[in-house]
Amino acid sequence: MATNKVLVVDDEQSVATTIKAILELDGSDVTAVTSGKEALTQIREHEFDVVLTDLRLDDLDGIEVLHETQKLWPDTVAIMLTGYASLESAVAALRGGAYDYLIKPSDVDELRATIGRALERRRLRQRLVELEQLDRLKTQFLSMASHELRTPLTAVSGFMQIARRRMSRLSGATDVPEPWRAEAQRADATLEMANRQSKKLARLIDELLDVSRLQQGRVEMRLAEVDLADVVREVAERMQILSKGNQIETKIAGTAPIVADRDRIEQVLENLVGNAFKYSPENGRVELSLHASGVNATVSVRDEGIGVAPGEVEKIFGLFYRSPDPRADHVGGLGLGLYISREIVARHHGRLWAERNAGAGTTFHVTLPLAQVRSHEEARTA
Ligand code: ADP
Q1: What's the confidence (pLDDT) of residue 378?
Q2: pTM score
Q3: For the residues of 224-284, what is the DSSP string, one character each?
Q4: What whole-number distance in Å separates Cα of residue 49 and Cα of residue 15?
Q5: Which atom of ligand 1 sits closest to the CA of residue 305?
Q6: Band of the pLDDT at 374, cuts 50, 70, 90?
Q7: Do the Cβ atoms of 297 and 291 come closer than 8 Å?
Q8: What's the 366 CA to ligand 1 centre distance in angstroms?
Q9: What number does the ligand 1 atom closest to the CA of 339 have?
């Protein structure tokens, strides 16, 4: 581990030397100076982890040492040394960005504990900066990679459509021998399979794109008044067609006008129903219900599937989270759908959460404010 570099500034030689000796015993590399001018020279030439300075120096104010440190080395932690008489200026120094202060004469343990805390704080601050930088890199990578993957995939899908059209022309042509037409039909069926797979790939890439756009705040919601009951009905019909055996039951009471980006709310509900299919037995029942009460409308998606463990009810909304349940092993996915859905719902001032059913399976609830409530709120806060 690198040695900690500490600068001690005190115009009383004995104080500077004593502090230096104590901190050196703890393994720090300590420079001790007895004037403000020398302190400024040191700060301009070296980066210290901690600067411990007296507030009242003969030649200048300790605050100047503090400011110069902050200007040149924002990560360096500054601690002020002060006598009782100058406690007020110590408080002013804290307001000005000093991390802590020590009253002279200070006890050895207190001195060591204060320096220890300061070093820990500096380490955590540096780690935070590194993690923020990594997070930015990850978001940039996500955005770049998903764009780069989307462009050729769009071209592949387009070419596949053209090839299928050619195949169907060939298989329907009367002037082409029968074996050739049969071959064209088989090729068309193969292309259809490839097309389904490329659609799956496109959905995954779109999820990655959504995550990077949401994280960069680049998702614009196109808001308009819509009836949530219509949206739920339409999603149920569309998803029933895609289902391989699951039965969707809808329970919708009346209308539920909301102000929303219809496409995005459909995306959320399709994701929840799609998950209910994915994590349920093939003939499992999925219930899609809507009820409005007071100020909110709530859509609930209930399945009889594998369920989520008690400790996972919140975790499943995390980025890239996938359940360790072996029964979900064969199910494809990146663990992004619920993260994206929760973000979209939050942008509609709503809430999305999951609940374990008393029997088997899970119920997901989406709560959104009803239109009149939202416009009233907006008028109030405008
Ligand atoms: P994906 O399904 O693509 O992995 P999601 O973000 O939609 O990503 O879901 C995250 C995880 O939450 C899934 O991997 C699964 O473990 C769990 N999960 C989601 N929906 C259900 C459900 N209806 N029943 C059981 N587990 C679910």
Answers
A1: 60
A2: 0.72
A3: EEEEHHHHHHHHHHHHHHH-SS-EEEEEE-S--EEEE-HHHHHHHHHHHHHHHHHTS-TT-
A4: 20
A5: 24
A6: low
A7: yes
A8: 16
A9: 6
pLDDT for residue 164 is more than 90 = yes
Ligand 1 centre distance from Cα of residue 276 (Å): 8
**CA of 323 relative to ligand 1 center, distance in Å:** 7
| pLDDT of 380 | 59
CA–CA separation, 374 vs 382, rounded Å?
Answer: 12
Helix or strand (DSSP H, E) at 288: strand 285-293
Q: What is the pLDDT of residue 295?
A: 93
Q: Within 6 Å (CB) of ligand 1, which residues are found?
A: 275-276, 279, 303, 305-308, 316, 321-323, 328, 333-339, 362
Q: Which of 205, 271, 279 to mutate to test the pocket of ligand 1 (most atoms within 8 A of CB)?
A: 279
Average pLDDT (164-188) is 92
Q: Which two tokens stand for residue 8?
A: 């001690």
How far is the C-alpha of 99 from the C-alpha of 50, rounded, in Å?
Answer: 10
